[in-house]
Amino acid sequence: MAPEITVLALAGVLLVVHVFVAVHFKTKQYGKDWNMGARDADMPPLNDLAARLERARDNFIETLPLAIIALFGVVLAEKANEWTALAGWVWLGARAIYLPLYWAGVPKVRTIVWGAGLVALLYVLGVLLLG
Which of 50, 94, 106, 122 lies at a CB distance of 3.0 to 4.6 Å from 25, suitable for a disulfide? Predict the structure, then answer.
């Protein structure tokens, strides 16, 4: 299997982690009845920790489609190489590091890590588009 596809499969695992961590802390604040209910009622704002985890999850969900397009695209177009594989691993590593940084509320470094992941994806997208 191409390393880029392995990266995407592991990104799916990371997505599950994001979802479960975010909902765990949201449930901790709102309660199990909220979690198991229809969630129709207006709720008070999330506490800082739960809100950060929800934003981290949303941020991952926003960047995942670009990763899928770029990484799957280079494999499908037969343009994958050791550099696109490395870029995929850099992106995944950055995204894995991003979650605990956001969880802990670490500013600046979190943004640098996010930027490194984005640059890695832009590289792969460039290979896909430009060869």
Answer: 50
Tell me what pLDDT residue 127 has. Answer: 98
**Token code pair at residue 128:** 């896909």
Distance CA 55, CA 126 (A): 28
Per residue in 66-77, is it b (16+ CB within 10 Å) or e — as a string?
bbeebbbbbbee
Q: State the pTM of this model.
A: 0.94
Residue boundaries of the structural domains of the chain? 3-130
What's the pLDDT at 41? 84
**pLDDT tens sequence across 81-117:** 999 999 999 999 999 999 999 999 999 999 999 999 9
* Residue 94 contacts residue 63 (beta carbons within 8 Å): no
Spatial CA neighbour of 111 closest among 123, 122, 101 = 101
**DSSP, residue by residue, 66-120:** HHIIIIIHHHHTT---HHHHHHHHHHHHHHHHHHHHHHHT--SHHHHHHHHHHHH
